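Researcher: I'd like a candidate sequence for this fold, 171 residues long. If you have to choose between options at a position, lean toward the conservative one.
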């Protein structure tokens, strides 16, 4: 099974936060399978796999949270977190390429990649909310869409890193 097949064969968890029409779909966390699917095969294959995942979702395959699919899921206010994860992959690929795939480079790439995902997704959400005619501050978006997920995402990054280090011995 290659990384593209792993991207397609996924299960989803949909969290409802309550609050407004968009809050039910606000959350995009770095799912362990997505992180591991990027780190284990490497930045290049992982980025390609995530691009395929986004493409499948864009054309309507129900691969996004809540078994949603279609261009609306990607272009909605929370689509930036999905697109941001593609940037995470590209950042991981670049840093591990330049850093020689050293452990320090991998950790730095994972941290910067997740930060880029949060930044891109938060800005996308902010401007998407502005276009809908609602005003919402960046602080509130960070409080609802990022802060609750920093620790779980950090744990997933750590687990993906440790699993990758252990499994590389067998491949």
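Model: Candidate sequence:
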């Amino acid at each position: 099974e290659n990384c593209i097949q792993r991207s397609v064969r996924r299960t989803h968890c949909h969290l409802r936060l309550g609050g407004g029409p968009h809050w039910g779909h606000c959350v995009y966390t770095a799912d362990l399978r997505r992180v591991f699917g990027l780190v284990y095969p490497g930045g290049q294959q992982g980025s390609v796999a995530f691009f395929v995942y986004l493409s499948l979702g864009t054309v309507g395959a129900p691969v996004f949270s809540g078994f949603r699919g279609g261009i609306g899921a990607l272009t909605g206010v929370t689509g930036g977190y999905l697109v941001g994860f593609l940037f995470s992959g590209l950042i991981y690929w670049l840093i591990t390429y330049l850093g020689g795939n050293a452990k320090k480079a991998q950790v730095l790439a994972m941290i910067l990649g997740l930060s880029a995902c949060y930044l891109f997704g938060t800005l996308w959400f902010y401007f998407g909310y502005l276009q809908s005619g609602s005003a919402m501050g960046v602080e509130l978006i960070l409080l609802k869409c990022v802060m609750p997920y920093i620790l779980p995402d950090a744990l997933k990054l750590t687990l993906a890193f440790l699993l990758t280090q252990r499994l590389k011995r067998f491949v």
